[in-house]
Structures are given as C-alpha cells and as structure tokens.
Automatic annotation (TrEMBL):
PROSITE patterns reported for this sequence: CYS_SYNTHASE
Pfam families registered for this protein in UniProt: PALP
Top enzyme class: transferase
GO MF, any single term: cysteine synthase activity
Species name: Flagellimonas algicola
Chain ranges of the Tryptophan synthase beta chain-like PALP domain: 6-282
Name of the molecule in the record: Cysteine synthase
E.C. number: 2.5.1.47
Keyword annotations: Amino-acid biosynthesis, Cysteine biosynthesis, Pyridoxal phosphate, Transferase
Transmembrane stretches, start-end: none
InterPro entries linked: Cys_synth, Cys_Synth/Cystath_Beta-Synth, CysM, P-phosphate_BS, TrpB-like_PALP, TrpB-like_PALP_sf
Pathway: Amino-acid biosynthesis; L-cysteine biosynthesis; L-cysteine from L-serine: step 2/2
C-alpha cells in the first residue's frame, strides 16, 4: 500500500501487443504511462522538476510559478504544485481540448489561453514575458535538466528491468524530448546497441504532444547524438492508430501515442527478431471533446 499519491508515479506496466503486431519473432510492448496518477508520462518530470527545485531552494511557497504547456505537463504540474501548496499559472493554446483545461483548474491551477494561430510557441513567449517583466519563475521543461533526469532515474531502469534486459528498440514521440533523452541515456549505458527511435510529425501534420520544432524553439535539453533514428508520422496515421489501439488492443490513448505505435509497428514489420518498447504517453479520455474518437 502506498502512503502518498506521489508514490504511485512510475512503475507503469508493459503490455504486449497481441493483435496489431503480426511478426511472431518480434515482441512489441506498450508502456502504459496513462497509469500514472495524473494520467500521463509527464507526472515523472513534473515531480522531479518541482521537488528538485525545492530541494535546491529555487522554489519556495512564495514563488510564482508559470509554465507553457500543450496539456499533459500542465496537468501534472497542477496536480503536484497543489500537493506542495505552490501557486502555478499554466499557459496553453486556446484550441487545447476542454478536458485538459478543466483538469488543470480542478487541481487548483490558473489557466491562461493564448491564440491558437501562434501555437505552443506563442504560449512559451507569453510565459517568458511574465518571467522577464512580472517576477515569475518558469520551470522551463524545454531547458530543465530535471526533465530528462526523471526518465534517467525511473523510465529507463523500469524498461530495462521489465524486459529482463532484452530490449532492442525504444520508440518515443518527441515533444520536449525529455522522455527520449533520459531513457536513451540510461539504456545506452546498459547496452549501446539498443536502438533509440524518435517520432516526429510530417511537415503538414499537427499532432498534440509531438513537434518538429523551429530552430529557435528547439528544446535545449535535446541532444541529437542520443537518438539513432528519427521517423516521421502523419496526423492521419497517428489518429488512425490511436483508434486501432483502443479497438484492437484495449489501449485507450491519445494521438502522440498513436504516432509512436504506428512507427513501432513499422519497425516490427521489418525486423527479424527483437523486443520493442513504445511509450503510450497518456489516456484517451483527454481527447473526447476532439474529433479523434468520433
């Protein structure tokens, strides 16, 4: 039995694909990050960024926190800031799903919406201005080493342990790139031959949680040397796979998870043998007000 809700962050299950993967010589495993208490993989870095900042004295109960988010990080930060008694303002594009906004507010956070035509970059610019002009502190998941270190300390070791050290390929969508950076760092230390595969959207696609960043917005924590291959996925393919995950595998997840799964299945179809782990980064109930599951 856990004594605290935060004890439930991490140690998420690996579930083997029994329908979509048709290669009998390849094991495809989905890591179900929606099982975290805040409902996504972002619980891990949110906890590490806040807790580490408090331990260093950079965050106190008088600190005015602010963060730009496309959704999942904001929900995780709202939950964890509330638990620690911290005030936080979360900034997101106005076309974000209603479920995400409502969940952040339910946890007690202030939510500020920025114009959808400037995307997450506009939300980041707004947060930067509040830091520069109004005395706010930004956790800055895009440049905060506590982001990727959360996955180095937890996600990577869990995958290594739960695959019995047999993982050959790791597939992750890339947004802030914290998940892929931290997990890659750990797994490569165990076995440099493990292939790290990043997933980005095609140029015309808009997939929540996956980005192909303009150079000036590229996350500072991103190190291209830690990714062996980058594969692209279309919005249509990612959405179709999200629906198939629910219908065929019983895994209810969002679009970025569908994108990673689509790439993982592409890999599985070309491999002779191996073990693939694909990150399912959140739950599908965050997309019910969108057209994804219509």
């Amino acid at each position: 039995m856990s004594n605290h809700i935060l004890d439930l962050i991490g140690n998420t299950p690996l579930v083997e694909s029994k329908v979509l993967n048709t290669n009998p010589n390849v094991k495809l495993l989905f890591k179900l990050e929606g099982q975290n208490p805040g409902g996504s993989v972002k619980d891990r870095p949110a906890l590490n960024m806040i807790k580490s900042g408090m331990e260093r004295g950079e965050i106190t109960h008088t600190t005015k926190l602010i963060e730009a988010t496309s959704g999942n990080t904001g929900i995780a930060l709202a939950m964890i800031a509330g638990i620690f008694g911290l005030d936080i303002e979360l900034v997101m594009p106005e076309n974000s799903t209603k479920e995400r906004m409502q969940t952040m507010r339910a946890y007690g956070a202030k939510v500020t919406l920025t114009p959808s035509d400037v995307g997450i970059e506009g939300a980041r610019d707004y947060a930067e201005a509040k830091v520069n002009n109004d005395g706010y502190k930004m956790l800055n998941q895009f440049a905060n080493n506590d982001n990727w270190k959360a996955h180095y300390k937890t996600t990577g070791p869990e995958i290594w342990r739960d695959t019995h050290e047999k993982i050959t390929h790791f597939v992750s969508s890339m947004g802030t790139t914290g998940t892929i950076m931290g997990t890659s760092t750990f797994l490569k230390e165990q076995n440099p031959e493990i292939q790290i595969v990043g997933v980005q959207p095609t140029d015309e696609s808009r997939i929540p949680g996956i980005r192909k960043w303009p150079k000036e917005y590229l996350p500072k924590i991103f190190n291209p040397k830690k990714v062996d291959t980058i594969m692209e996925v279309s919005q249509k393919e990612a959405e179709s796979m999200a629906r198939l995950l629910a219908e065929e595998e019983g895994i209810f997840a969002g679009v970025s998870s569908g994108g990673a799964a689509a790439v993982a299945l592409r890999l599985a179809n070309t491999m002779e043998t191996g073990t693939i782990v694909s990150i399912v980064c959140d739950r599908g109930d965050r997309y019910l007000s969108s057209e994804l599951f219509d």
